Amino acid sequence: MSFRTIEWTDEEVVMIDQRLLPVREIYVKCRTYQEVAEAIKEMIIRGAPAIGVAAAMGIALGAQGIKADRFEEFYREYEKICDLLAGTRPTAVNLFWAVDRMKRFCLEHKDVRLEKLKELIKIEALKVHDEDLEINRNIGENGNPLIPKGARILTHCNAGGLATAGYGTALGMIRAAHEAGKEIQVFADETRPFLQGARLTAWELMKDNIPVTLITDNMAGYFMKKGMIDLVIVGADRIAANGDAANKIGTYSVAILAKEHNIPFYVAAPISTLDLALKGGDEIPIEERNIREVTHIFDCQIAPDGVKVLNPAFDVTPNRYITAIITEKGVVKSPFEDGLKRLFR
Ligand code: MRU
């Protein structure tokens, strides 16, 4: 990949500003944990695994600045930092997974000298980043056999290198198939309102010379009916115990279209996206975002002043529309409940 989504350099967290892509490639430097939290809220960085990595790095950044003499004092401040980061976005469970991991790590090392502990916390955050890269490569490897030679693949939103530490989940499968020389083609839904498909997926696939065609969201059915789509691959923000999967708004409609046209619908995600404490998708909290994302495209107003607007950022695809869930630990097919549980054994 020819770009870095997020990295830790010289006590700063540096991330590519995903609000400005593809027009400008600007890297933002966060010097405080509050700046990292703001970057997640404002979608400078987005995508479930990437915000998990950002939270871990934000916590590590905050930990470096804690002034305390005793562990209890240190941990009180540390918890505040964790809670601020956990409050940034509600749907992607990877965020809470990362925060919990960083909290647990700190508690498990309570007997270590505080200066040393700060260093270990930083190393742990870097581990969250590096492991995510490896996880995505494994998702790609596990999912690659599901992609036929010459496949025309529809994807929605951006579940790519930009949404992760690198390589991607849905785009990880696509990258693996491309690297295997399968001569695949990608159709990218533009993904209104934030345009992750048009701005980010098209951009990163073009950078890697993977053939991509951009379509608007409402064209998916047209191309499926014409027999121009062989399979769908999307990412996920949270998957419940029964396999219901929350992902970017519009995913549910694509899944129904795929079922109607007998097209396999795959969800690619790391096991940190699984929330087995939730029985079904109805329990997944759905983020409502600023209505300006709907009424404006960048600074251009496209709706009348004062119009009533709704802007849920995610929807839930019921398990019956999902052909398989591809994780770094293996591929799970319906019925999902037992298969998903087994991934943790
Ligand atoms: O609002 P976003 O851009 O953070 O939403 C991202 C998605 O819905 C992705 O498909 C999902 O997080 C999977 S990323 C590997």
Q: What does this 3D model show about the protein?
A:
By secondary structure, the chain is an alpha/beta fold. The chain folds into 2 domains: 132 residues, translation initiation factor eif-2b, domain 1 (Four Helix Bundle (Hemerythrin (Met), subunit A), Up-down Bundle); 202 residues, Rossmann fold (3-Layer(aba) Sandwich), CATH 3.40.50.10470. Helices cover 40% and strands 17% of the residues. It is built from 11 helices and 16 strands. The strands form 4 sheets. It has a 7-stranded mixed β-sheet with strand order 6-5-4-7-10-15-16, sandwiched between helices. Helix 2 packs antiparallel against helix 3. The longest helix is centred in the middle third of the chain and has 30 residues. The model has no long low-confidence stretch (mean pLDDT 97). The structure holds 5-S-methyl-1-O-phosphono-5-thio-D-ribulose. The site of 5-S-methyl-1-O-phosphono-5-thio-D-ribulose has 17 residues, from helix 2 and strand 9.
Strand and helix map with partners:
Layout: E1 6-9, E2 12-16, E3 27-30, H1 33-41, H2 48-64, H3 71-86, H4 93-108, H5 114-143, E4 152-155, H6 170-179, E5 185-189, H7 196-207, E6 212-215, H8 220-225, E7 231-234, E8 238-240, E9 245-248, H9 251-260, E10 265-268, E11 274-275, H10 292-295, E12 296-297, E13 300-301, E14 314-317, E15 324-327, E16 330-333, H11 336-342
Parallel strand pairs: 4-5, 4-7, 5-6, 7-10, 8-11, 10-15
Antiparallel strand pairs: 1-2, 2-3, 8-9, 9-14, 12-13, 15-16
Helix pairs in contact: 1-2, 2-3, 2-4, 2-5, 3-4, 4-5, 5-6
The structure holds 5-S-methyl-1-O-phosphono-5-thio-D-ribulose.
